[in-house]
Amino acid sequence: MNPANEASSDNHTVSTQDLEHSVTSRVARYTDLRPYKDSFKNSNGVPPEAMRLMSPDKVMPIMAPDGWEGRSKLAPVRGAPGLTITLAECPPGDRAGLHKHSAAVENFFCLEGEFEILWGEQGQYSTRLFPLDFVSVPAGIYRDFRNAGTSLGRLLVMIQPAQGDLQDTVYHAASTGEQIDKLWGREVRDAMAQIGIQFGEPPQASNAKG
Question: Is the dihedral of CA 149, 133, 23, 72 positive or negative?
Fold first, then answer.
């Protein structure tokens, strides 16, 4: 075989022809996408209303790296390390809730509608995205997004995790956890902890401040 027709992938030699044939298995059809909240539907003790405080109506994974263990593991396409892609569909007023990605950059590309992107400890900074606008939010700061328009909005969300990470660690605002305690009781927050939902600062950040 001509070396020019070979490529290296994951320490294995793969022919160009095999790579070309693989493309049809790397297609994601919109009609086949599933919101990642589907994986939480059978979580005992977590009301859907509580979940809506921390997630938009629909966030549908499109692509995730091989071996990904985070929320986007439902993605139909497996890609190279370092990037997950999801599609957020939000009715007017729908939002993600204030949260931070401790080690991942989060990128937003507006496909349809009008979105307000907020950041800061209280979400005190903001910008608006219109179709084909883009913003990149660095790791380690709180952010939120909401549909600021009057019709369904679609936002392409691209996460760039730290090198070697197999999941994206997310911390929701402490105030959201307190609101859940007030509305549904501590048992609901404890049930959320069982499925990996965390509130407040990462442990290392808390220790550094103390």
Answer: negative
| Structural contact between residues 103 and 141, judged by C-beta atoms closer than 8 angstroms | no
Using one digit for the tens of pLDDT, what is the confidence trace for 165-193? 999 999 999 999 999 999 999 999 988 88
Estimate to the nearest angstrom the gap between the alpha carbon of 176 and the chain centroid: 18
**Positions of E strands within 18-104:** 58-65, 77-79, 84-90, 99-101
Q: Under 8 Å CB-to-CB from 3, ≥6 apart: which residues?
A: none
- How many helices (H) and strands (E) the chain has is answered by 5, 14
Q: Where residue 81 sits, what CATH number does that domain have?
A: 2.60.120.10
| Residue 10 falls inside a structural domain | no
Torsion sign (Cα): 58, 43, 62, 168 = positive
How many domains does the chain contain in total? 1
What is the pTM assigned to this prediction? 0.86
pLDDT tens, position by position, 12-41? 578 999 999 999 999 999 999 999 877 665
Cα–Cα distance for residue pair 13/72, rounded to 1 Å: 28
Place of tokens 């070396």: 3
Residue at 181 is within a domain: yes
| Domain residue limits at 72 | 35-209
Residue 198 belongs to a domain: yes
Q: What DSSP state is assigned to residue 162?
A: P
